[in-house]
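Re: beginner question about structure tokens

> Can someone show what the tokenized structure looks like for a real chain? I only ever see the sequence side.

Sure, here's an example I had lying around. Input first:
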Amino acid sequence: MSIGKVLMGVMAGVAVGTAIGVLYAPDKGSSTRQKISKKGNKYAEDLGNKFNAFVESVNKKIETVNNEVLRMTQNGKAKLEEAENDLLANSSRQAK
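And the corresponding structure tokens:
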């Protein structure tokens, strides 16, 4: 599931919840608006925390891939140097 779809779902849920809360609110308008504001802030904070966790997990995956690429590059370089040394050794033996 893409992050865009998740965010759209969250935003739709917030909108529907807010609308239902306003329609069935037993309190005065100012009190209801204050409650909605507090809930909206809480949802925004929760969404921010989830987004930060998502970014952190992506960064960890990128770091893991980067480390694996570095390891493979170093391994390939070592094999290339080994093959070069073998080639040079074989060439010097054939020249004699």
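Each token stands for a local structural state, so reading them left to right follows the chain. DSSP finds two helices and no strands in the chain.
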